[in-house]
Design a protein that fits this description.
The structure is a homodimer of 140-residue chains. Chain A is of the alpha+beta class and 140 residues long. The first copy, chain A, has six helices and five strands. Chains A and B meet through strand 1, helix 5 and strand 5 of A and strand 1, helix 5 and strand 5 of B. The first copy, chain A, binds a DNA duplex (30 and 30 nucleotides) through helix 2, helix 3 and helix 4.
Chain lengths: 140, 140
DNA sequence: ATATTTTTGCAAATATGTCGCAATTCGTGC
DNA sequence: GCACGAATTGCGACATATTTGCAAAAATAT
């Protein structure tokens, strides 16, 4: 997977640096991270500004995407670097579960796009709710 | 539609004030707005802090929702105040088409949430692509 | 190893979001 | 319409998040 990172960077005229590697590694687990989490985790490795710059660059190159979570967003590897999926966001504890393209979903949106003469290039599907844990706990 | 706003406020023990009216009006067009747009548009009418407070209140009362649009969030009237819909975003000209819940969609996500022990409270579905016009034009 | 170009760290500037409190506005009863 | 208590707002001060300029450091090509 590192290979793909290098390729993507080189192809676009960017070099592989320690900081870019570090950010990439931090995201490899697959868990979406808030900027705050990233800056805390990577504080010893790179400057806050560099994190922002690198995330922005990665987003431009399609290496990462930002997923919305209520008011905040989290950063995660894009579909190119981790399998295409969607999210179940727990509105209480902030946990994010991932799930694959549901059966029949593709067909539905394709029909839809066709009906509107759209040529689809991508889509996002985010579900909000309470995870199992938070359903039993009282509202914090 | 103003009626519904008043009712919602009264039912929850809040009063209709100029600022609440102003924010509501600003959103009536149906277009999602960033906080920045709102603070700029309403600068002459109300204070920044009040906008945040009012948006928060409106969200609590289910009058507005914050939706992902690009990477920042935007505020728009909730389904209760404007019909539930989703968006087709043209990545070239920025046009946004709205469409209703596709048939079969509800069932799919309900099954999914159930499988993950989630209790759904909402969802977002955004499609990206090229609108009819932009498909024929050269890349700008 | 050196020159050239890119990238980073640092510190300062902006932007975004919150908070406490006095001043104002709202809804109500007269 | 006026007076009153309660709810709401504006203001200024914070706290946090994000961006920017620029000199120093790291990467690339020779």
């Amino acid at each position: 997977m590192q290979d793909k990172l290098i390729t993507t960077l080189k192809n676009n005229g960017y070099s592989l640096t320690k900081t870019r590697q570090a950010l990439f590694s931090a995201l490899l687990s697959g868990k979406p991270r808030t900027m705050r989490e990233l800056t805390l985790d990577l504080a010893s490795v790179m400057d806050r500004a560099s994190i922002y710059r690198t995330v922005a660059l990665f987003e431009e190159l399609g290496i990462v995407v930002r997923v919305q979570q209520g008011w905040k967003y989290k950063v995660e590897l894009s579909d190119k670097f981790s399998p295409h999926h969607h999210h179940l966001n727990c509105t209480q504890c902030g946990k994010i579960l991932s799930f694959n393209e549901p059966a029949g979903f593709e067909k539905i949106i394709n029909n839809l796009a066709e009906a509107h003469l759209f040529h689809l290039s991508g889509h996002t599907l985010e579900l909000q709710g309470l995870c199992h844990n938070c359903q039993t706990k009282p509202t914090a």
